[in-house]
Amino acid sequence: MTGLQDRLTPEQIEAFGREMDAIRQRIVADLGQDDVDYIMNVIRTQRGLEVAGRALLFAGFFPPAWLAGVGALSLAKILDNMEIGHNVMHGQYDWTRIPELSSQKFEWDTMAPAENWRHSHNYIHHTFTNVLDKDRDIGYGILRIDPAQKWHPYYLGNPVYATVLAFIFQWGVMLHDLEFDRIVRGERKWSDPELKQMRARMAPKAVKQVGKDYVLFPLLTGPLAPLTFLGNATANLTRNLWAFAIIFCGHFPSDVESFTEEETENESRGQWYLRQILGSANITGGPLFHILSGNLSHQIEHHLFPDIPARRYPQIAAEVRAICEKYGLPYNTGPLRKQLWSVAKKIVKFALPPKPQRSAPEPDTLARDKVSRAA
């Protein structure tokens, strides 16, 4: 870890912060009908894909119809999760005063209750991005993903845990809020009132999601119920794997840094911006790729400006990168395959115990070795 204070001088940090503030102010002042039209079009597209997907599964006895239905439903779930749900619940469209776009009222088509997620993600993660022992998204309480995390034999299962998490990602996001790791360590009690409230929200949401995808819609297709069940499961799996890949590639590739609480104590606005740059990574791709990722392919810009409509991130990415180059700061970006491979290597690397540090020989030992070799 490199200290924030070692990157730039106090004067540079202040100037850097002003430049980032200027980008934010310019975008906020420019928000308008185009932004509303964009997100409403995405919502209409998502609903159309879901209706089409559900309808095609009624003809699931015909393999092409089943495949098309699963594809449409998968895309609908990805759009709902990434470009709509994640971004609306960040408050990116609260300025519109449209009830449908209210961060406090929106509920998405996934297991995690919106209210729980807003606290763990919007507040904890985005306030303490990559701060060890504060940002619980570092390893999600089950993975060792940073060298500063103390190794334990449990972490030998890192690759297995990551694989399982990818397949059941929506369940992992929901259960993440319960902080099982802290309960196991005795740092939190299962009976805590806050956890009781979270569990009270989780149960009905999980019942609703399971009932909708695995009971109601399969039963509606009568004799095709097993095929509809399988189609819904496949769509959910596709969304899980996609969301896992995008999120992990934005947070855990090589060269993404973490920080201690001491480093971020009394942090200025400029230092906060700097931490977001150093603790994030982008993924390159085309316009459709960015939409399907919820524009979290621009994770750097998202961490800098989490409440600005994500459709604006591609517009400012080049400017943010130029500012980083101006101050000699890294701008971590690359194609999905590169970032995903980087993440996979870290998961395997940190599953293993750290190599013991070899201490340097004492001066007198070096001298004896030199005499011995000469003889």
TrEMBL record:
Residues 64-333 form the Fatty acid desaturase domain. It holds the Pfam family FA_desaturase. One of its GO terms (biological process) is lipid metabolic process. One of its GO terms (cellular component) is membrane. PANTHER family: ACYL-COA DELTA-9-DESATURASE, DESB, FATTY ACID DESATURASE 2. This is Fatty acid desaturase. One of its GO terms (molecular function) is oxidoreductase activity, acting on paired donors, with oxidation of a pair of donors resulting in the reduction of molecular oxygen to two molecules of water. InterPro entries: FA_desaturase_dom, Fatty_acid_desaturase. Residues 353-375 are annotated as: Disordered. The lineage of its organism: Bacteria, Bacillati, Actinomycetota, Actinomycetes, Pseudonocardiales. Residues 365-375 have a biased composition (Basic and acidic residues).
